[in-house]
Amino acid sequence: MKKKLALVLAAIMTVAAVPSVAFASTKITVVDEISTAVDSDFTSRVELKKGNDQVDVGTGSTFDVNLKLTNGKFAKDDNDDYIMEADGYKLGTGIEKISIKNDTTATVTLNSDIFNQSKEGLPAEACVLAIAATANEVGDVVATFTSNVSAFKTAKEVIATAYGDKIKVESEGTKVFVEDADNKAVIKDITINELVSGLLKGNDITLKLKGNYEFVTSTDPKVSFLNQNIDADVNVTANEIKISFKGDFVKDNMRKDMTISGIELKTKKGCKTGDVASITVSSKDFTSTKLEVAKMVKEAVTYSVEDKDLPVIYAGAKNDDYNTLKVSVEENTGDILNTSRKATFTFPEGIEVVDIDSINGVKVSGVKNDFRYEIDENVVSIWNYSKGSESDKTDLEIQFVINAAPTFSGDVNVKLGGQFDDKTLKVATVKAPYTIEAKTKDVLIDYRYVPVNDIVIKEAEEGILKKNDSILLAVEKMDFEDNGKVEVTEGNIDVDVDINKGRDTSYLELKVNDDSSEASTIVISGLELYLDRTLPVGGYALTNVADTNKKDSKPINILWENSASAKANYDESGLFKYKEITVNKDYVNVITSGRDQDDSMTKRKIIITVGASTMTAGTDTIKLDAPAYINSENYTMLPVRAIAEAFGATVNWDDATKTVTVLSGQRIISMTIGSKTMYINGTPVSMNTSAAITNERTFLPVRDLANAIGISAVNWTEASGTVTLN
Question: H or E segment at 44?
Fold first, then answer.
């Protein structure tokens, strides 16, 4: 008999796994795993109760939740009435009432005490709802529960899987043969399940074999229904099994789940690595189905991930829900595995193993025998992992508690080593619970309230950002001075934004007032910064930080709930010491450095009107040699020398190159007639339109000239054709 070692890796990670709602606190459990046919009625029971981190829901004896079906509708009887509203239909324990609004939505009234488990001696551990429904299309039927009661957290789960055929034929798995080893083996059971009762009439069932394999004719397969043998003749030849039923096959209207077991195969002489055995199951009662039942491999031990849909895990903050990652290590022949030898699991850098939670469902503290383990950050070593049963099988289910760093994203590839062959398996994918986008803004220094670009935050899943969570944003060496305005452009999350003083700078805090039931997009606009005049030219980063007001307090940003405090070690309890993640390394790009002195003339207000022969600078009236005008591209053009000198700058003209140079504090600004590029301290800056000569004077577009010499406020009055520089 072969040995099988099944390893279940479970992670307590940042955020809840999918398909359950990320971070949802309400617990929903599907009691019955339903397989059904499209357009066929089914009944699925779900349990609802308060999660461990959830406050009591409902202020009275009952409260309402909304139930919505996806890819399904509530079932009706022959009178076109909803079955769940019929007299005598047992909704379930803790369900006071149900009111169906339409085919896909209903209001369910729950008993608060049973849901909250707030009283001792309650007769039930959860509210149990029996959902009578019909599947619309092939695929999953999903039930989503929401409520206007804020303490109730959105919950959703698959309640049934719909198939196109009314009878489902499948194999419990593929049997593995090994080259140069045993050439006979019993394959895994084949099941034939009715998705609608009464379809199996007792007609003959034929199993035809293809591939470099043949049936062992000396072995008689067994046919059973509900673990009871069915009276049938089974005729086995090298490539065909025929099952003929005897007696009264159909005794009632119950759905029949039939199992065919004990089918033995042997390899043919030409069978080699990669060859597959397939069986086509056919009958007059159902559509033929082709199953892969065996394959030839080279290795004595094979490794695979049994879960086809790997979980998505969110980086950073911890959650009390488990993400179950199922990996199988199967010994195909002989006594290859020696469980007393060391076996290792190496997780990628950025994944920290906190502990092993359980072995075969038993807490580590209660595990018998000589099992032991060691954890070195992301590497786990185990010894004596045999289950210790009387049989010669070695089955292991091991559950790890792990954390993902805020900076980690991508595949979680676990390398099995030591006693196991060196194999790397993808067991999960880590994503950021939210993304932050912000474009680079070129700015001039030396003024307060410098405007910068919008910041966009997107949830990866609904409910990831929970009530009282915060996202903290800081700009390197700068302070937020205006928190702008916040708008939710997608979804329904409720948030506010404010400015808080940290240890180094004033940062922006986005605080969640209420969770979302739809993944949300948040836009923060109208932001302004204070730039100290000593900052050099260059790019400054926008970071998502873990900073707090108190030096040693726990970080309040959700990305850092698993992070170490300021004094903790990196490897203590699998926590992380990261303090920030860079969103955009050049969010603010300073293109001019600060002035070397405070010239009072830089604070003057200048008013100039298109076509006028004078302008006002502070309290002075200055005569203009050439008035402002609007060019053919509809840009307002101002005389460079008059404006620059009014702000205390020096202007030089090079006739040979037709170049104007303006010296303003530490700024050196140059522009050439006919060019749309000016240079500020050697850095090229694009202009809206070209520098031009009019009436023997150099003119620049108003906003380009203002930016060049550090004017923060430019206003245009259309009615009077007046520009105000302040």
Answer: strand 41-49
Q: How would you label 26-39 residue by residue, b for 16+ Cβ within 10 Å and e otherwise?
A: bbbebeeebbbbbe
pLDDT in tens, 673-702: 999 998 988 888 888 889 999 988 899 888
Return d(Cα 420, Cα 345) in angstroms, integer.
Answer: 9
Q: Is the peptide bond before 348 cis (omega within 30 degrees of 0)?
A: no
Task: Name the nearest CA neighbour of 152 among 35, 247, 277, 67.
Answer: 67
Per DSSP, the residues of 444-473 read: ESS-SSEE---EEEEESSTTSS-TT-EEEE
Query: Cα 155 to the chain's mean position, in Å?
Result: 16
Identify whether the C-beta of residue 145 lies closer than 8 Å to the C-beta of residue 48.
yes
Q: Residues 351, 404: contact at Cβ < 8 Å? A: yes
Which 3 state secondary structure label does DSSP give 84? Answer: helix
In sequence order, the 6+-apart residues with CB closer than 8 A to the CB of 142 are 69, 70, 71, 72, 156, 157, 158, 159
Residue 154's Cβ-count burial label (10 Å; 0-12, 13-18, 19+) is: buried
Full strand arrangement of the beta sheet holding 697-701: 629-630, 636-639, 697-701, 692-694
What is the number of H-type helices and E-type strands within the chain? 3, 63
The answer to whether 205 and 190 have CB atoms below 8 angstroms apart is: no
Compute mean pLDDT per 10 residues along the chain, 726 residues long, and list them: 30 29 60 83 89 72 92 93 88 89 94 81 80 92 88 85 87 83 85 82 91 92 76 90 76 67 92 92 90 84 61 65 53 59 86 75 68 85 63 60 80 83 80 90 73 92 83 90 91 91 77 88 92 79 72 51 43 56 89 49 76 86 89 89 82 89 82 90 86 89 82 84 87
Can you say how many angstroms the Cα of residue 670 is from the centroid of all Cα atoms in its chain?
Answer: 50
Residues 186, 263 contacting (CB under 8 angstroms): yes
CA distance 411 to 429: 4
Which element (helix H / strand E) includes 707?
helix 702-708
Q: Name the 3-class secondary structure at 113.
A: helix
Residue 231: enclosing H or E segment and its boundaries? none
Residue 273 token pair: 């690595």
- Convert the pLDDT of each residue in 108-158 to its tens digit: 999 888 888 776 666 677 889 999 999 999 999 999 998 888 778 788 889
Residue 703 host element (H or E): helix 702-708
Rounded to the nearest angstrom, the gap between the alpha carbon of residue 236 and the centroid of all alpha carbons in its chain is: 51
**Which pTM value belongs to this model?**
0.54
Q: How many CA atoms lie within 13 A of 273 on its CB side?
A: 6
The alpha carbon dihedral of 713, 716, 722, 723 has a sign of positive
Q: Hey, which bits of 139-186 come out as E strands? A: 139-146, 155-163, 167-171, 175-178, 184-186
What do you get for the CA distance between the two ends of the chain, in Å? 89
Residue 484 to residue 488: CA distance in whole angstroms: 14
- The contacts of residue 566 (CB under 8 Å, 6+ apart) are 551, 552
What are the DSSP E strand ranges found in 515-611?
Answer: 521-525, 528-530, 538-545, 580-592, 606-609
Q: Do residues 28 and 19 lie in contact, with contact meaning Cβ atoms separated by under 8 Å?
A: no
pLDDT at 14: 29
Per-position DSSP letters for 113-134, written without gaps between them: HHHHT-STT-S-SSEEEEEEEE
Q: Is 497 helix (H, G, I), strand (E, B) or coil?
A: strand
Amino acid identity, residue 301?
V
Angle at 156 between CA 154 and CA 159, to 5 degrees: 155
Name the residue with tokens 């617990």: 27
